[in-house]
Amino acid sequence: MKKISLIAFITGMLMATLAYVADVREWQYLQEFMTIGFVGYVLIISAAAYYLTTLLYEWSKETEAWQG
Length: 68
Prior knowledge:
Elements: H1 2-25, H2 30-67
């Protein structure tokens, strides 16, 4: 699952970068590129949320072992 999350994060970065370049260069079909950029941001946020949730879960397991 971590590999899928990493791939989603990298893909999101590429999509957001593509939308930024399209905006700066004023490419044709700018609205479609902005939609791609939005999907990229969603992928980035989802991947970050997964990693943070996994990190918190691992930290909670360490605390339980220390208390027990």
